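Notes from hallway chat w/ T.B., transcribed later so I don't forget. T.B. wanted the structure written out for a chain they're using in a teaching module, and asked if we could keep both sequence and structure tokens in one place. Agreed to drop them here.
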Amino acid sequence: MKQKNKKLVAKKHLGQNWLDDPATLIAMCEAADVQHSDFVLEVGPGPGSLTRVLLSQAKKVFAVEKDDRFRMSLELLRDSESNFDYIIGDILTFDIDKRVEQEKDFKVVANIPYYITSEIIAKLIALKNKPKAVALMTQKEVAQSLADPKRIKSVAALILKCYATAEYVRTVPAILFTPQPKVDSAILKLTFLKKPLHDILSDNIFLSVAKAAYRGKRKMLSNSLASNLKLSSEDLNRAFTESKVSKDARPENLTLTEWKNLVQEIKIRSL
């Protein structure tokens, strides 16, 4: 059953851009390798185009939709599809851990509101039970940044790299969405590591140093840290020397190992 929401107008403040391109919807499912044994969490199903594709491939689909206008169509879908359930609510406050605690594994596939991309990824990172696979529709530039194999372009990319691998799957042209956004989008695949490379979210000094560095990401790292950290120039210079990180480097050019070495030397001189 295909329930259309023809009279509904997308709400800009909810970041609604609906996708109804069959090839792209299938590509999203393929990115997460959705199987008939899978429990899938979908964020923002809206008119349900992606939901229906997921229902044809997964064992169970549970959707979280913030817009109450879709309640009737989602209710009709639940009545007709035994493997579908939903809740009207905010994914950022929804207790995902509680909902999936009875599931051995689960996957996340979602065309998310782009303005909460970082918050959703942070929420997934913080889960006790991490998803087996994640496929998100994001802005193209964001996907490129998070999946860049050579450079760590932001604090968000640095955090993500500690907990997961990110893969740029494919570009999705703006023309395929309703309403049409100003920029192209992309499918981003995340695969969580069994063990974090570094538990950066529990390391306040590491986070503080990273935020200070990226506050002036086009500047040399030494200048950014000198301006934003309460550390003497002598101690900061020694931290660079001992960590073997160039003072002239920019934050995006450091490897995760270099970040860890530099932060460790800064910690020694901050305590």
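Follow-up for T.B.: Residues 80 and 173 are 32 Å apart (CA to CA). Might be a good example for the class.
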